[in-house]
Amino acid sequence: MSKRTLYIIIGLLLFLDVAAFLIYIVGNSNRDGKSPINFALNDSSAVEQADTIPDVVLEDRFDTISRSVTYVSHEKIMVGNEGKRMFATVKLKLVWPVSINNRKDLGKLEKALMKKLVGSGVFGSIEECVDTLLLHPKFVMPSDNYVTTVVDSDTALGSNHTRFCCRVFPYLGTNFLLEMAVLIERFDGRMKHREMKVVHYDRLHHKVLGLDDIFNYSKREDILSLVNQSIEELKLRKKNKSIHEIYYIPHDFLLGSKSVIFYMGDGIIASAGSGMYEVSLRNSKLTPYFTDYYNELLNNDSHFKSYGFLTWSDEKEEPDKKEEPHKKGKKSKK
Asked: Residue 86's closest CA among 188, 211, 179?
């Protein structure tokens, strides 16, 4: 082979390399000239973006609202043969979304969270919702004659002291999904009640996800069968004969990279007063029953960020594992 032929071959190879590089740059740049790099959530590391992601995903921002008030009845109320003053505490700590993927118009997400928080009612803002909760204490005995007091709300609970405590916080975030948890704890003077409620939010399309967005409606009987199998295992493990099957797919559940945790409030699958229960099913079991929409999100999502469990303390501390709902042992893995 002559030197001239060799030089021609080398030149052609260099030309093809340069052309391939230019094609790659053109095909992997947005219209604004930015490369498709996803700065996911509050994490500083860059994650390569999947083809299905329409825009660069930006960090989410939250504000903390912390309020507490304790009420006491003006006059003593007869309880049995004894006159007692009634106490009622309302305590709130909300890590509230103010910007999700650079969007501040979060009306649908806020509405879904407030519905989980209060159950009913229409509020123009979270501040209005908080004021409504704070202004309506629930006493052991009905009492319209009460005043605000400076009594330490952390004092030991008595049978004449009720509580309504609520925490709202981001629990899990991914490139596509934000999970907001609403944990409500009540003490009615006799028993403690705990509820875990969850709102799922598509961060890219700014849509609140319902049950049918995650699970295939036509497969609901199969999904329910898997949930009840886990409940039966829970019944055997707890040796609690009052635990029974559920007749619908629980509406509150946490989606994770490996499993789904379903929450059932007090009295749903056991007698009243037995507390909140939870069961866990691995994604590998549920994959055939996920919608195509959620399977695509799950398969393309390369980044799972756990915000952790919100504590009452203002200090930055590790979540109390004994307090965290999915760490309490009330679950069964399939």
From this structure: 188
